[in-house]
């Protein structure tokens, strides 16, 4: 009976590790996409006239700050043990949603 419990516990831990790795891969892909979008905005800011450039720079500063805060949350998540990462996931999700909202707001301001 003990070997069955040990086996089940091992399977549960393995599943948790796999879930964490899959989540981290998904988040990394989202960051890469967001960074590409931010770079695109940055290129547009360089092309914009001085007046519009100020808007772009302001929007980019806010995005950089949110992105950096979200990156810190991701690093916490990556360093978390199997038990703690699920708890940290909700904090990361909140930071990610705030970052996405800031990006959307920046796009609206710049259109």
TrEMBL record:
- Using the record for this protein, list the coiled-coil segments as residue ranges, or answer none: 24-80
What is this protein's name? Answer: Coiled coil domain-containing protein
Annotated keywords: Coiled coil
Judging by the UniProt lineage, the source's domain of life is: Bacteria
